[in-house]
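Recap slide: LemA family protein, sequence and predicted structure.
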Amino acid sequence: MTTFIWIAAVVVLIGIYLSWTAGRLDRLHARIDAARAALDAQLLRRASVAQEIGTSGVLDPAASIVLYQAAHAARQAPEDGREVAESELTQALRATLGEREQVDAVGAAPGGEQTLAELTAAVRRVPMARRFHNDAVRAARAVRRHRLVRYFRLAGHAPFPLAFEMDDEPPAVLGAPHTAA
């Protein structure tokens, strides 16, 4: 009779562990979804402000076209091409707003200071949001790699989480204080 009790206790403990792990995995997937929504919001904010600067007429025509097209492509990119489009927007921001004179020209325009403040905040928040998302993905992947999670299919039909990799280095000039000309 004691053998039966020990076997039942072990089965109950394994069941509790599996239930706890499934709950943890579910919370990690919810955290990934929330972090992805926050990342999408920051990327959209950055693209919107970049598009606004591109259509403002403050930059030279070539820079305006480059910035507008990159921002538009980032906003309209399908999910599988989003990382490339966002990296291209980052490169366009560095190319068009990489010098102090260009940033000062935007700041001197009507409403330019506010636009620059929005863009500066957006380009600073994108790397943080991406880091939070990728940390959540890393944690979920670590749990999903466990043998028991795979054997008992505790992840259900949830897709394997993917990190969001992009070039998110902001223009150096946006980090420094600027003065309007």
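Residues 35 and 133 are 5 Å apart (CA to CA).
The chain has one domain: 18-175.
(End of recap.)
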